[in-house]
Specification:
The structure holds two protein chains of two kinds.
Chain A (H helix, E strand, L loop, with lengths): L1 H17 L1 H4 L8 H34 L15 H29 L7 E8 L2 E6 L4 E5 L3 H7 L21 E4 L4 E7 L4 E5 L4 E5 L5 E5 L5 E7 L11 E7 L1 H22 L1
Parallel strand pairs in A: 1-5, 4-10
Antiparallel strand pairs in A: 1-2, 2-3, 5-8, 6-7, 6-9, 9-10
Helix pairs in contact in A: 3-4
Chain B lengths: L1 H9 L10 H6 L3 H29 L10 H36 L7 H20 L25 H29 L12 H32 L13 H35 L6 H14 L15 H13 L1 H15 L8 H24 L1 H7 L3 H31 L5 H28 L13 H26 L36 H9 L1
Helix pairs in contact in B: 3-4, 3-5, 3-16, 4-6, 4-8, 4-14, 5-6, 6-7, 7-8, 7-9, 8-11, 8-12, 8-14, 9-11, 11-12, 12-14, 12-15, 14-15, 15-16
Classes of the chains: A alpha+beta, B mainly alpha.
């Protein structure tokens, strides 16, 4: 155990620099709405900090000044309608200031009309299936083999030696940059949830129900997430990888997948 | 002849507890039953804590070291069920049993035989629940929320899970009825409702919540049972049912349940802070209204647990707004506690220390609660360690610290001796340091993208997980100091009737230890003089 920690140390320092934006806070993400979500998160956080400074400040002053050992005599007041009206009214105003932008973002999040690409996401215990509705492409996406080997109990493989341990898949979801991608989520067995923090999307995949979610990625790159609803023993082992590529690269990928798909179909026939 | 028998029977003055095991099995005395509840909850606290340590040991480093994923899921599920239904709720019922009759000047609970039964159901319920660990297929592993269809994949444990939940509900409902009847009918004359101590008030409200929602839970799990064994399809999509309906029903129970676990804690700190501030509770009546307000709101916020399941926009907005509203009465409570301390003359005995930590750390849990209320942000937080951090902040340094504060506060009244103050303070400081070390890093883990309920994680989450695991082990060991305090509780100096310098309330007018029977005659004159002046 100790040996492992020491082995991990240089790896951690490396990870610290490479993934500094992961460490403490929510990622800003790569869509307009993920940035809005981040801003909301920070706005509420700073309100909490401000309220905290006032409440804890008063409390701490009181803890030092109003202690018996300082020789004070306790006051006897036990109510003040004015004070109570004030500290009921002010929070109401603050809440209103939070609620309005939150509602605006919420309305945008729910507007999945007119997508450029529609993908049916079907969850299984314990993998994902993606079907591009108009492109005729579909495939399963499961945990990548290096992680599959390393994750077993007493595997003898150091997780630090595996790239993107537990966050890598065999076949990622590929989507075009700048296009509105709509996900239609459902499940084949139990409830799962499709979550990629950088896209600010978390939506349950529920048997018998088709849920919608959408995103428009503004940056290319590889973005990782995980199933976020307990779905049985391998719940921790069904990651999601989304590759955002330029639209022409996306088209090229679709063409190869289509051909590949046709060839496989021919072979099977 | 008849008269003689009646006379002999009526002489209650000197008869103390029965001897031996029978005393505990057949007791109808509120103090004995209170003790039973408290001891039971302490045992469950350690059982649930041991399960938490299995979880934290496995999560200390990436990779699987100790347990398989299926057993890990059993541990998370059982930890939650044991802590919620076995540790926190019975502890508060135990405090209610001990203190409510003494605080309102009643000789006992209104329904003493039912009181005995509502306790003794609990060991049976938890015996059944814990025995599922040894059944084929293991214990339930679907999370304490028991979402179908996953819960229907439980092995032989499934019907036992349902039955034990039924029993826990039965026990809670009977306990709640007893508390309501006691408070409404057995107060000393002169003690009007708005004169009742805050602990009694918050318990009255809590008891109504229990009666309202425990049957809902019973209904939900019964539907699971019939789906599994009798061919119904309440929650099965294949048969035309709706898995999401279970979540609505469950959280209609589950959200008030959250307040069931925190309102009595509000009551406890509202007793303790005035005592050690030597100043009356600020805004007693507004505290009552705030607690009632929270109780009402708790019924209309349930779907904030479900922002990711896919609800109509109007539904999401409604539940977001109603949830944010809860911050207002909760804020009133916190401001009132601070105002109670303001210009008081504070001392910092162990119960006060735990209460102060409660106010600080519960407020931090309240802040993360406010963040979670904001629906778009909640979509990112949902089912991550951020949520785990949030509810542990309100439950551990929230409810459990309040229970600890109450135990230290009233222990001299129960035993007749002062506890070891040095050990008590050591217990407090260790608990406070380790509880923060355990749960604060979880905020960062959740924000960085670590889902909850996973047995293994990617390497960038390693640092904070190690920190949390070290904290958890430290917190677990710190609780042994509490056991030491309890075991040595009769070695201290003799406690006076008032115990503390300036406590208010009828419980301080009876000797320490409180006699087996108190207030055989209602304390009419004393209500005004002793308790409220």
């Amino acid at each position: 155990m100790i040996r492992k920690s020491f082995l991990g140390l240089p790896g951690l320092i490396g990870a610290g620099t490479a993934k500094a934006d992961w460490a403490l806070n929510m990622p800003k993400g790569i869509t307009a709405l993920s940035a809005e979500t981040y801003d909301l998160h920070m706005m509420v956080f700073w309100w909490c900090v401000a309220i905290g400074i006032i409440v804890f400040g008063v409390m701490i002053i009181s803890l030092f000044k109003h202690r018996k050992s300082a020789g004070v005599q306790s006051a006897t007041f036990s109510h003040s309608t004015t004070a109570e009206v004030i500290w009921t009214a002010i929070p109401c105003v603050i809440l209103l200031l939070m609620a309005v932008p939150a509602a605006e973002t919420m309305i945008k999040l729910e507007d999945s009309r007119d997508p450029d690409v529609s993908i049916v996401v079907t969850a299984y215990q314990w993998k994902w299936h993606y079907k591009y509705q108009d492109e005729g492409v579909d495939f399963y996406s499961s945990l990548a083999l290096p992680s599959v080997d390393a994750r077993r109990k007493e595997s003898g493989i150091d997780p630090y030696s595996v790239d993107n341990y537990l966050l890598d898949v065999d076949r990622p979801l590929v989507v075009p940059k700048g296009k509105k991608v709509r996900l239609l989520l459902t499940s084949n067995d139990v409830i799962h949830a499709w979550w990629v923090p950088e896209l600010a999307i978390k939506r349950d995949a529920i048997p018998g129900i088709i849920n919608e979610a959408w995103f428009r990625a503004e940056e290319t790159g590889t973005f990782r997430g995980q199933c976020a609803e307990l779905c049985g023993k391998d719940h921790g082992y069904m990651p999601i990888v989304v590759e955002v590529v330029a639209p022409d690269a996306y088209q090229a990928w679709v063409d190869t997948r289509k051909d590949g798909g046709a060839q496989v179909a021919q072979l099977e026939n | 002849m008849t008269t003689a028998v009646a006379d002999a029977h009526d002489s209650h003055d000197d008869h103390g507890p029965a001897k031996g095991l029978g005393r505990w099995l057949f007791t109808t005395n509120h103090k004995d039953i209170g003790t039973l509840y408290l001891v039971f909850s302490l045992i469950m606290f350690f059982v649930g804590g041991a399960m938490a340590l299995v979880i934290r040991s496995e999560l200390m480093h990436p990779g699987l070291q100790f347990v398989h994923p299926e057993f890990f899921n059993q541990m998370t599920t059982m930890h939650a069920l044991v802590m919620v239904f076995g540790a926190v709720m019975p502890a508060f019922v135990g405090l209610a049993n001990w203190m409510i009759p003494m605080m309102i000047g009643a000789p006992d609970m209104a329904l003493p035989r039912m009181n005995n039964w509502s306790f003794w159901i609990l060991p049976v319920a938890f015996g059944i629940l814990i025995s599922t660990l040894f059944m084929p297929g293991g214990a339930p592993a679907s999370g304490w929320t028991m979402y179908p269809p996953l819960v229907l994949q439980t092995g032989d444990a499934f019907p036992f899970l349902i039955f034990s939940v039924h029993l826990m509900g039965l026990s809670s409902i009977m306990g709640a009825i007893n508390i309501i009847v006691t408070i409404l009918n057995m107060r000393a004359p002169d003690m009007w409702l708005l004169k009742m101590p805050m602990f009694v008030w918050t318990w009255l409200i809590t008891a109504y919540l229990l009666i309202a929602v425990m049957p809902v839970l019973a209904g939900a799990v019964t539907m699971l049972l019939t789906d599994q064994f009798f061919g119904t399809s309440f929650f099965l999509a294949a048969g035309g049912g709706d898995p999401v309906m279970f979540q609505h029903i469950f959280w209609f129970f589950g959200h008030p349940e959250v307040y069931i676990m925190i309102l009595p804690a509000f009551g406890v700190v509202s007793e303790i802070i005035p005592t050690f501030s030597r100043k009356p509770l600020f805004g007693h009546d507004s505290m009552v209204y705030a607690a009632s307000c929270i109780a009402f709101l708790s019924f209309i916020v349930w779907a904030h647990h479900m922002f990711t399941v896919g609800m109509p926009l109007s539904g999401q907005l409604f539940f977001m707004f109603s949830t944010m509203l809860i911050a207002v009465p909760t804020g009133v409570k916190i401001f009132n506690w601070v105002a109670t301390m303001w210009r008081g003359a504070m001392t910092f005995e162990t119960p006060m220390l735990f209460s102060l930590a409660f106010v600080f750390l519960f407020t931090i849990g309240g802040f993360s609660g406010l963040m979670l209320a904001v629906a778009p942000a909640d979509i990112q937080y949902h089912d991550t360690y951020f949520v785990v951090a949030h509810f542990h902040y309100v439950l551990v340094p929230g409810s459990i610290f309040a229970i600890m504060a109450a135990a230290y506060y009233w222990l001299p009244k129960w035993t007749g001796y002062m506890y070891n103050e040095t050990a008590g303070k050591l217990h407090f400081w260790l608990s406070t340091i380790f509880v923060n070390l355990t749960f604060f890093p979880m905020h960062f883990l959740g924000l960085a993208g670590m889902p909850r309920r996973i047995p293994d994680y990617s390497t960038q989450f390693a640092d904070f997980n190690t920190m949390a695991s070290v904290g958890a082990i430290g917190f677990g060991l710190s609780q042994l100091v509490f056991v030491y305090v309890l075991l040595t509780s009769k070695k201290g100096v003799t406690a006076t009737a008032r115990v503390w310098e300036a406590p208010k309330g009828l419980e301080w007018t009876v000797p320490s230890p409180a006699p087996y029977h108190t207030f055989d005659t209602p304390p009419i004159a004393r209500v005004k003089q002793e308790a409220f002046e």
